[in-house]
Amino acid sequence: LLFLWSITVSIFGIGGLLGSSGSRYLTVKYGKKRCLLCNNLVMLVAASIMACSKIAQSFEMIIIGRFMCGISAGLCIPLQYQYIGEISPKKLRGFTYSTSSFFWSLGKAIGQVSGQRELLGSQSRWPMLMASYGLPALIQLVTLPFFPESPPYLLMHKGDQEGCKKAIRQLWGEGQHQADIEDIMKEKATMKNTKILSVLDLMKDPAFRWQLYTMVILTATVQLCGINAV
């Protein structure tokens, strides 16, 4: 029983590792908006599988659902930050980045509260708690089609300058946006001369050594702050 509990909990992280590892390839090939839409479908399927696990009397369905949720979360984190940053005007970009972190924290807090026995953590209502995964995914699935694709993706990867201008006008309103388009073109030119590093290359490169140390230490010490005990 302890082994099954451990698998159920940890398989989310394994799915997250797989999802985040494939995020770069998928975003370059299919675009950030399309990947987010497909990701929401994965989350809805995962929520449905977990919600039906009690009726089916199958703990395996919970493990499968958790694994799919992990893949979805691993893919969503880099996608979310990239997409929201690229569709935001420069003056609001820092603010929109910070809202993502705020909503991640808010989601964790809502999960902790709604998981109490007095609310959805009871023996009869826990399938509803599992199904609640799908609510944010459903909202985004309905609203995201009204948003355009990321302007930098359209210009840098598709070479669609007219589509890029149309997306910018839809997002930022009418006006002179030539300077923003030129910035994207400069970034595209820079990327052509920049080698894409693998994880192993990143670990070997002395130029990123201290940034890497900082990120590893911060991520590791989060495990010591008491959140796991909570």
TrEMBL record:
<keyword id="KW-0472">Membrane</keyword>
<dbReference type="InterPro" id="IPR005828">
    <property type="entry name" value="MFS_sugar_transport-like"/>
</dbReference>
<dbReference type="GO" id="GO:0055056">
    <property type="term" value="F:D-glucose transmembrane transporter activity"/>
</dbReference>
<keyword id="KW-1133">Transmembrane helix</keyword>
<dbReference type="InterPro" id="IPR045263">
    <property type="entry name" value="GLUT"/>
</dbReference>
<feature type="domain" description="Major facilitator superfamily (MFS) profile">
    <location>
        <begin position="1"/>
        <end position="230"/>
    </location>
</feature>
<dbReference type="GO" id="GO:0046323">
    <property type="term" value="P:D-glucose import"/>
</dbReference>
<keyword id="KW-0812">Transmembrane</keyword>
<dbReference type="InterPro" id="IPR005829">
    <property type="entry name" value="Sugar_transporter_CS"/>
</dbReference>
<keyword id="KW-0762">Sugar transport</keyword>
<dbReference type="Pfam" id="PF00083">
    <property type="entry name" value="Sugar_tr"/>
</dbReference>
<keyword id="KW-0813">Transport</keyword>
<dbReference type="GO" id="GO:0070837">
    <property type="term" value="P:dehydroascorbic acid transport"/>
</dbReference>
<feature type="transmembrane region" description="Helical">
    <location>
        <begin position="62"/>
        <end position="84"/>
    </location>
</feature>
<dbReference type="InterPro" id="IPR020846">
    <property type="entry name" value="MFS_dom"/>
</dbReference>
<feature type="transmembrane region" description="Helical">
    <location>
        <begin position="6"/>
        <end position="26"/>
    </location>
</feature>
<protein>
    <submittedName>
        <fullName>Solute carrier family 2, facilitated glucose transporter member 5</fullName>
    </submittedName>
</protein>
<dbReference type="GO" id="GO:0005886">
    <property type="term" value="C:plasma membrane"/>
</dbReference>
<dbReference type="InterPro" id="IPR036259">
    <property type="entry name" value="MFS_trans_sf"/>
</dbReference>
